[in-house]
C-alpha cells in the first residue's frame, strides 16, 4: 500500500471534490509554522490547477 502525505491527501481531496481549493489550506499550514519551499508551493498549486 503506497504511503501518501498531507499534501498528497489535499490533492486527492481536491480531485474528488471534497475541497474546493488547496491554496488556503497550504497558506494556513505556513501561518502555523510548517515549512514548504517556494518551489514546492508553486508545484503543488500547479498540480491542483490553482496557479
Classification by helices and strands: mainly alpha
The whole-number mean of residue pLDDT values reads 96
Strand/helix succession: HHH
Could you list the spans in which at least 5 consecutive residues all have pLDDT below 50?
none
Q: β content, as a range? A: under 5%
User: What assembly state would you assign to the polypeptide chains in this entry?
Assistant: single chain
H/I helix tally: 3
Largest sheet: none
What sort of overall outline do the alpha carbons produce when their principal axes are compared? globular
How widely separated are the two ends?
Answer: 30 Å
Helicity, as a percent range: 55-70%
Radius of gyration: 11 Å
- The structural domain count equals 1
Number of strands: 0
InterPro entries: PIN-like_prokaryotic (IPR021799)
Organism: Microcystis aeruginosa FD4
Pfam families: DUF3368
Protein name: DUF3368 domain-containing protein
What features would you describe in this structure?
This protein has one domain. 57% of the residues lie in helices and 0% in strands. It is built from 3 helices and no strands. The longest helix is centred in the first third of the chain and has 10 residues. The termini are far apart.
